[in-house]
Specification:
Blueprint lengths: L3 H6 L1 E3 L14 H11 L6 E3 H10 L1 H6 L12 H12 L1
Antiparallel strand pairs: 1-2
């Protein structure tokens, strides 16, 4: 079971992520559209798993976030993902 604190730290909310210093290539409108599409339950949050699945499924999402299409622990791409996720959060 995942604690509420763990879930909170592994989610990003729609109202967050307005930091213009993030290394993402997408515009705010593009990022908001992707967020809305991925937030299937309409809760206003995304977790890491959902975002990683979207990146693997849709190269455009990876490109928008300036991330590789495949996220792996072994090759450092997971670190890049974590950095981007935290900058959104």
């Amino acid at each position: 079971s995942v604690s509420a604190e763990s879930r909170e730290s592994s989610c990003v909310s729609e109202s967050e992520g307005n930091d213009v210093s993030t290394p993402m290539s997408g515009t705010s409108a593009q990022l908001r559209q992707v967020f809305t599409e991925l937030d299937e339950k309409g809760e206003g949050t995304l977790n890491k798993r959902t975002l990683i699945k979207a990146i693997r499924r849709d190269k455009a999402v990876a490109d928008l976030l300036n991330l590789p299409h495949e996220i792996r622990q072994e090759d450092g791409t997971r670190d890049a993902f974590e950095k981007t996720f935290q900058s959104i959060d």
